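Notebook, bench 3.
Goal today: get a predicted structure for RNase H type-1 domain-containing protein from Rhizophagus irregularis so we can plan the truncation constructs. The sequence was checked against the plasmid map this morning, with no discrepancies at the termini. Length recorded as 111 residues. Pasting the sequence as submitted so the record is complete.
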Amino acid sequence: MLKEFNHLLWSSIRAIKSHKNLDVTLIKVPAHADDTLNNHVDALAKAAHTDSHLSSRPSLELFAPCILQFNSLPVDMNIRKFIRDIFDAKTLLTLALLPRFNSSSSTSDID
C-alpha cells in the first residue's frame, strides 16, 4: 500500500475530540498480536484503500479548524515541509535561469 499523508485527518480528530470533550487513550498494539479490535481497524483501513467512495471523500467533510489549500487542492502534508519544498523548487528555478546554465550564454560567461 502506498503511504498517504493524514495531517488533515489528525487535525479533524483533534478538533472533534476537543469539540465533544472526549477523552481518548491511544494504545500501541504489537504487530501480529492478533488483537480483535486491531484486526477490525486493519480491515477498515484496507477497505478504505480499495473503496473509491471512502478514499475520495471531499475535504469539506473534514472537521479541521482550517484547511490550507494550494491551487484549490487541500495540503495534506506537513506545512513546513510543503513550504520548504516550494522554496527549494523556486531556488532551483533561480539557479537554472542563471546565465551560466542557460543555453544561450557563451562559454566566456562561465567562471
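The two ends are 48 Å apart (CA to CA). The chain has two domains: 1-64, 78-111.
Flagging this for group meeting.
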